[in-house]
Design brief:
This protein is an alpha/beta fold. The chain is about 40% helix and about 10% strand. It contains 15 helices and eight strands. The chain has helices spanning about 90-95, 100-105, 140-155, 170-185, 210-220, 225-240, 245-250, 260-280, 295-305, 310-325, 335, 350-360, 385-395, 405-410, 465-500, and strands spanning about 40-50, 60-70, 80-85, 110-115, 165-170, 190-195, 420-425, 440-445. Strands 1-2-4-3-5-6-7-8 form an eight-stranded mixed beta sheet, with helices on both faces. Helix 3 packs across helix 4 (about 170-185), helix 5 crosses helix 8 (about 260-280) and helix 8 (about 260-280) packs across helix 10 (about 310-325). The N and C termini lie far apart (about 50 Å).
């Protein structure tokens, strides 16, 4: 999900525009007129390493990073907007979730972005965090407990005990926001879960859905775009079947010629990942989130795929929109630009990719496949058995299918309350989440023309009317929840006084 949700830019020492990449200036995002960046302060919270076993780590602690701004806060009264950090550096999420601070300005809120354990600088065991058994304390349950403890203690420190808390999150972070409301309703008054695939990651749904929906994004630009991609992969298959590896190296600008079916499989994964990222990040303006993207990258990709008859060159240059946005790479290194893992949608690179790979091997289910029938990609299966074999070898763990469903209710959410499930119809993760409202306080917002958690991003002059409307609804619901929580707190306080 880290293409799910992440791609990190790779820098090389050789400079060339041989791969026809876009110039850096092509990707400069436009800020809305009069916009200001909030002044976040970076701090560290002394966090318990293991919340659930009093023997294993004793009272061991680690430093958990968080970002905070009281720029708009009415001290001691305004609500607390708390972002449940997901699989990456917390600064990346804070700088790409401007709606939260815009809403804080309206509702006089304190804003906190908390970094997830084992990501960014919040490593419980430093560089040994991904050793076995230390990595075993990377679980959803531990992360939620981190947030519950942090919220409770910071409220005390900041004299904010009567300030209602609303949690926000996008993607996996949105899942965590849902779970916080389910598990700690005594602490959290409501949740905005943007692009949160709480159903598919709990093993509920169709394994073909994700790459089918990636394909649909490109097909919606024009069926000929889908056909060109499928045709290019077919030509690649013909070359691979003949073991014409030198031609494949030449056509795709690879640093080394492939030499085995495994190398071809890796090339397929790298190319499929590029389309996945463009579908997820199909924003109407250029962005620097999960790498550099032009405005409307799906349309840009289709224009590249259809610019001439050389489909292999077109496919190479389409992948270059993602992997060579600066135009500086002289060649594609198959195994450094993309790492295969337990998440077929991509784990990203670096330490963060190790953490997400482990989570995809334990609690988070991501058994998605492409098949070249319901989608435009080469057949690449990833079954529960494939997951089990990989995870046993990589992390010495056996996944537990269905565990998230048991722990966090799956699709049986009707007795919950005060959760917004927002999804954009361009986002391939959307159909793994809640698309229909379940009650007056379990509200699904479907954003036409919206990509991956577009509603969490700051206002932009290129925003579609649908996301402007969605943000307005979100703001109104959150204001209601804050008001309701204030009433509850006052009633509780009065009742307590009556017993004294």
């Amino acid at each position: 999900m880290r293409a799910g949700f992440i791609f990190l830019t790779v820098t090389v020492a050789v400079f060339s525009d041989a791969l026809h990449g876009f110039s850096h200036s092509y990707f400069q995002a436009k800020k809305p007129p009069g916009s200001q960046d909030p002044q976040f302060t970076e701090k560290f919270f002394t966090q318990t390493v293991d919340h659930f076993n009093f023997n294993s780590m004793g009272n061991g602690t680690f430093s958990q990073r968080y970002l905070i701004t009281g720029q708009y806060w009415k001290k001691g009264y305004g609500p607390i907007f708390f972002y449940t950090g997901n699989e990456g550096n917390i600064w990346e999420f804070a700088l790409n979730s401007g709606f939260i601070t815009e809403l804080a300005a309206q509702q006089q809120a304190l804003v906190i972005f908390a970094e997830h354990r084992y990501y960014g600088q919040s490593l419980p065991f430093g560089n040994e965090s991904f050793n076995i058994p230390q990595v075993g304390l990377l679980t959803v349950e531990q992360a939620l407990a981190d947030y519950a403890v942090m919220i409770s203690e910071l409220k005390e420190q900041l004299a904010a005990t009567d300030c209602p808390v609303i949690v926000f999150g996008g993607s996996y972070g949105g899942m965590l926001s849902v779970y916080m409301r389910l598990k700690y309703p005594n602490i959290v008054a409501g949740a905005l879960a943007a692009s949160a695939p709480i159903l598919s990651t709990a093993g509920l749904g169709d394994s073909r859905q994700f790459f089918r929906d990636v394909t649909a994004d490109f097909e919606n630009v024009g069926p000929e775009c889908r056909d060109a991609v499928r045709g290019a992969f077919y030509q690649l298959k013909q070359l691979a079947d003949r073991q014409d590896y030198s031609r494949i190296q030449s056509e795709f600008g690879l640093c080394k010629p492939p030499s085995s079916p495994q190398d071809i499989h890796q090339l397929h994964g790298l190319l499929r990942n590029a389309f996945t990222l463009m579908a997820m990040l199909d924003y109407p303006y250029s962005t620097h989130f999960m790498g550099n993207m032009p405005a409307n990258p799906v349309k840009v990709a289709c224009g590249t795929m259809l610019r001439g008859s050389d489909l292999l060159a077109n496919l190479r240059d389409t992948a270059g929109i993602v992997y060579n946005s600066t135009g500086l790479l002289t060649c594609f290194d198959l195994y450094s630009l993309y790492v295969e893992c337990a998440d077929p949608t991509g784990c990203g690179l670096g330490f963060d990719s190790l953490a997400w790979d482990y989570q995809a091997c334990t609690e988070v289910e991501l058994c998605f496949e492409s098949n070249n029938v319901t989608d435009m990609f080469p057949p690449m299966a990833f079954t529960e058995k494939d997951r089990e074999v990989y995870c046993s070898k990589r992390w010495a763990v056996v996944p537990r299918p269905g565990w998230l469903k048991v722990q966090f209710w799956g699709d049986a959410l009707s007795t919950a309350s005060n959760i917004i499930f927002s999804n954009g119809d361009l986002d391939p993760w959307a159909n793994g989440g809640v698309r229909k409202s379940l009650s007056s306080s379990l509200v699904a917002l479907n954003i036409s023309g919206g990509a991956h958690h577009l509603d969490l991003r700051g206002s932009n002059e290129a925003d579609p009317a649908s996301v402007i409307s969605a943000r307005k609804t979100e703001a109104e619901l959150i204001a209601q929840w804050v008001k309701m929580e204030r009433t509850r707190l006052r009633t509780s306080y009065t009742q307590q006084k009556g017993f004294i």
